[in-house]
Amino acid sequence: MPLLLDKKIDDHSAYAVWNIQETFLEIPYLSPEPFPADLNPVRQAEWIVGRVLVKSLCDTFGIKYKGISKQDNGKPYLVDSHAHISISHSFPIAAAMIHLKKPCGIDMERPREKHKTVQAKFLHKSEEKYRDDLEKLCTIWGAKEVVYKIFGRRFLSLKDEIKTEFKSEDLILGEILKPGYEDSFEIHYEWVKEYLLAFGT
């Protein structure tokens, strides 16, 4: 299978990235797990590959994969397991992460002009100095998506309730500013081909 990355982060977590090269006719044969019939071919490929990646990560830690379900807020979780998972798609790239003990988040993004056109919706006032830097905008967006996934709740404003700060060339501090839910997370990031990969717990 066309894995770009398959990395064990530490004793409790790992992630994997897949470059989807299979045809839409081949994709359904990658997994025996039934998939929703109403998905278009791209979404179907992302759905199937995401689950194949999660199953592979479960195998890494000796977890019996029994499928994925979703909480009321849409966050995916493993059936009959206390391990935490996160999945990201940016066709043709798919990524997944697992952590045995803590909520986790992973995101794959490709810099697009969209990140400039919608920046007013996600840039915190402290991040406005990056408004003309497309790679930085993409990185901030990805890091905020990771924080949002870790948080696991709806109604969290990317603009006003999540703030990021670049700490190094591969580390961002993500802060939740929502009253009553203040917290901070270390978000690691790297470039995989032309895609940003960001993840954290």
Short structural description:
This protein is an alpha+beta fold and 201 residues long. The protein has helices spanning 41-60, 114-117, 134-151; strands at residues 3-10, 13-19, 68-70, 76-78, 84-90, 93-99, 105-109, 162-168, 171-176, 183-192, 195-200.
Description:
21% of the residues lie in helices and 34% in strands. It has 201 residues and is an alpha+beta fold. It folds into 2 domains: 105 residues, Ribosomal Protein L22, Chain A, CATH 3.90.470; 83 residues, no CATH class. The strands form 3 sheets. The protein has a 5-stranded antiparallel β-sheet, covered by helices on one side. The protein is globular and about 50 Å long. The mean pLDDT is 94.
The rounded Rg comes to 17 Å
Arrangement of strands in the largest sheet: 7-11-10-9-8
What is the string of SSEs from the N terminus onward? EEHEEEEEHHEEEE
* Terminal residue distance: 27 Å
Q: What coarse outline follows from CA principal-axis ratios? A: globular
User: In total, how many domains does the architecture comprise?
Assistant: 2
Q: Which spans have pLDDT < 50 for at least 5 consecutive residues?
A: none
Highest CATH level, the class of the largest domain: Alpha Beta
Structural class: alpha+beta
Amount of helix: 10-25%
Provide the residue-averaged pLDDT. 94
Fraction of residues in β-strands: 25-35%
CATH fold label of the largest domain: Ribosomal Protein L22, Chain A
- By DSSP (H or I, 4+ residues per run), the number of helices equals 3
The CATH architecture of the largest domain comes to: Alpha-Beta Complex
Note the main sheet.
Answer: 5 strands, antiparallel
